[in-house]
Design a protein that fits this description.
Order of helices and strands: HHHHHH
Strand content: under 5%
Structural class: mainly alpha
CATH class of the largest domain: Mainly Alpha
Largest sheet: none
CATH topology of the largest domain: Cytochrome Bc1 Complex, Chain D, domain 2
Number of strands: 0
């Protein structure tokens, strides 16, 4: 009887030891995987699933696209903006300012519109590339803008809408040379606003 009890006790003890060792090994493997993930990040291996070497990109330049931009298509894109903006001459301000003459005008200066402090103090003019950079991601370009529009990521769409807005003015700005090109620009922490809402 005593021998039988000893065998059972020994079996239970061995099973406990095996379970403990298994737990320690499993914990060690899990910690090693986490450590390897950190090594991957340090060696530029993508821990997030993006391709190695990829970096966030800013908007591509629209300058070479403006001369051949589709004004009618730009008018259609502007339909995304009409809940907040008008573009006709002497049109009313809405959530955002009226955009008549916006191409070329000073940022944050439309009479009768209450701009955010960020936009009013931004400075500069709404030239073609500034408008494009702003429309790409308004809240990143002018931090503190009232404009909640998410932005227009497609380069051709931005060229089209800006070409359309160019026509909505007393003296349309000259178009850049069709051969003009520029490198993609990183989105600045603070810069101008535009058509889907300068405010």
């Amino acid at each position: 009887m005593s021998l039988e009890f000893n065998k059972i006790a020994a079996s239970v003890l061995v099973a406990g030891i095996i379970a403990l060792v298994g737990s320690i090994v499993a914990t060690h493997i899990f910690d090693t995987n986490k450590h390897n993930a950190n090594i991957n990040i340090a060696t530029n291996a993508p821990a997030s699933g993006t391709e190695s070497g990829d970096a966030p990109k800013g908007p591509e330049s629209i300058m070479a696209l403006l001369a051949s931009a589709d004004i009618k298509a730009g008018q259609d894109v502007f339909k995304k903006c009409v809940s907040c903006h008008t573009a006709e001459k002497d049109g009313p301000h809405r959530v955002g300012p009226n955009l008549w003459n916006v191409v070329g005008e000073k940022v944050g200066t439309k009479p009768g519109y209450a701009y955010s402090k960020a936009m009013a103090s931004h400075g500069g003019n709404w030239d073609y590339q500034t408008l494009s950079d702003y429309l790409f991601k308004p809240n990143a370009y002018v931090k503190g803008t009232k404009m909640t529009f998410v932005g227009i990521s497609k380069t051709q769409e931005r060229a089209n809408i800006i070409a359309y807005l160019r026509t909505m003015g007393d003296n349309p700005q000259p178009l850049p040379d069709a051969s003009a090109t520029a490198q993609p620009v990183a989105t600045p922490a603070s810069v101008p606003a535009t058509p889907a809402a300068q405010g």
